[in-house]
Amino acid sequence: MTAPTEETHAPDLLYSQAEDDLRAAVRSLLADRSDAPTVLARVESGTPYDPQLWKALAADIGAAGLLVPERLGGQGASHREAAVVLEELGRGVTPVPYLTSAVVTTETLLALTAQEGPAAGLLGELAAGRRVAVLAVPFAAARPAAAQPVGVVADTLEGTVTGVADAAAADVLLVPTTDGLYAVGAGAEGVAVEPLVPLDLTRPLATVTLRRAAGTRLADGASAVAAVRRGLLAGAGLLASEQLGLAEWCLTETVRYTRERHQFNRPVGSFQALKHRMAQLWLEVVSARAAARNAADALATGSPDTPLAVAVAQAYCSGVAVRAAEECVQLHGGIGMTWEHPAHLYLKRAKADSIAYGTAGRHRETIAGLVELPAP
After folding, report:
1. 222 pLDDT exceeds 90?
2. I want to staple 141 with a disulfide (CB 3.0 to 4.6 A). Which of 34, 146, 293, 369 is the partner?
């Protein structure tokens, strides 16, 4: 990465007072409405989403409109604040469609050339928390080319998209097609959302099938591709913050448990081998925080290094989240293997996130293509 200049400012990796206040508000809400037993009960029920929790987070706290300018009904904040929300949602593996609706879809709409008419109206609805919208692309898609575009036949949409995250919670689907980007009501005639069995029960996936479905065109082909690319980039960049929050919870809970669990009249955390494992994990989590914050700051400031910062964050944070969750399960011993303990939710979320918006390997390929190596 190039040295900071007037064009590439030094990233700010620290948290502001406003961000700390936002974190406190979100953490308090989740502690009251979405603790581990509550999340376990909801995923067992088959309806993981709590509409009242979403209303409190999206509308009462105003988290859904952080990326939306004030003139369109949002909070006029930035990706840094949205990243703080995602850290807390990652800490609680909270089943809400924040990443998919308030980040990916919102960023896609904001990237459209014309933010007037239907796009502006939808942004206002999303910012107010009155509606949830999901970009109808596979959760694993890292770029528009992998978005399985739907065809347009006689001004109606025809096609199938598999592996769409949070589609079951959506009121509106943003559908990339061969002719542009369309907004389609999730309950409209000709739209079928069929739930899949996901690894991560806190973020359901679905297959979206469109058969002569009517939609509102938001952008033409070129503008649509650029907007979807921007939405997926923001999703990948802020997903690193969710992975950071997840890893931090796993580390904190593992340290707490190994202090309390005794064997041979000693806390198991006092054994040298376990100390080394947790110390190594702490170093990885600290590094993940730097990478995630750098990506969020790059997105917030429009840095020219944003694609590189996002690729670095995802290439590193996805692996740290998985390792932290694995260590959490293993170092909790037998209790970590039980359904009643939430550790398995964190491992499943970490595994699912590791292939979301591109694998670590795909992001490393991006880094290799962006970094200019010095001539020998």
Report:
1. no
2. 146
Residue 252 identity (one-letter amino acid)? T
Dihedral sign, CA of 25, 343, 237, 215? negative
pLDDT digits (tens, 9 = 90+) for 7-28: 557 888 999 999 999 999 999 9
CB contact at 8 A, 277 and 324: no
- Could you give the count of Cα atoms lying within 13 Å of 122 in the half-sphere of its Cβ? 31
Average pLDDT over the chain reads: 92
Cα 317–Cα 319–Cα 324 angle in degrees, nearest 5: 95
Sign of the CA dihedral 189, 191, 194, 200?
negative
- Angle of helix 272-301 versus helix 221-260 axis, rounded to 10: 150
Q: What sign for the dihedral angle of Cα 43, 48, 50, 54?
A: positive
Q: Which residues have CB under 8 Å from 41's CB, separation 6+?
A: none
pLDDT tens readout for residues 179-216: 899 999 999 999 999 999 999 999 999 999 999 999 99
Cα–Cα nearest to 123, from 184, 164, 74, 76? 74
Q: Is the pLDDT of residue 65 over 90?
A: yes
Between CA 360 and CA 369 the distance in angstroms is 14
Tokens of 139: 């959760």
Distance (Å, whole) CA 302 – CA 160: 34
**Tens digits of per-residue pLDDT, 106-126?**
999 999 966 567 899 999 999
Residue 131 is given by DSSP the state: -
Dihedral through CA 90, CA 175, CA 51, CA 204, nearest 10? -50
Contacting residues for 208 by C-beta, under 8 A, at least 6 apart: 136, 160, 161, 164, 167, 173, 175, 191, 192, 193, 194
